[in-house]
Amino acid sequence: AVSNAGAAGLGQLMPSTARELGVFNSFDPRTNLTGAARYLKQMLDKFGVVHLAIAAYNAGPRAVERAGGIPLNGETPGYVQSVLQFWGAR
How far, CA to CA in Å, does 59 sit from each of 30, 39, 90? Predict the structure, then answer.
């Protein structure tokens, strides 16, 4: 799967993020999901709280820093809410 923004694979990694994580084939499920997990861990380490890490995973860490929290763009607030609701349903 490729998003309109260019994020690819199961973990929906942007090409530059995938390269930084050493994911050279975003369509290989194992490497994509391993990279996605490492990226989420990086965002958790950087922001220290789950909701901001999820927002950074979706919108990028700079967007979260600029907004001083969850960016109020068209997608990210709903994405964070959806992930947290799904996680809480576990």
Answer: 23, 13, 24
Q: What is the pLDDT of residue 89?
A: 62
Distance CA 54, CA 59 (A): 9
How many angstroms separate the CA atoms of 24 and 8, rounded? 11
Q: Quick check: 35 and 44 in contact, CB under 8 A? A: no
Torsion sign (Cα): 75, 29, 87, 48: negative
Residue type, 58: N
- Asked if 16 and 24 count as a contact pair (C-beta separation under 8 A), the reply is no
Count of positions (residues) in the chain: 90
Tell me the sheet residues that pair with 8: 2, 13
Considering the entire predicted model, what is its pTM? 0.91
The confidence band for 64, taking pLDDT boundaries of 50, 70 and 90, is very high
- Amino acid making up residue 47: F
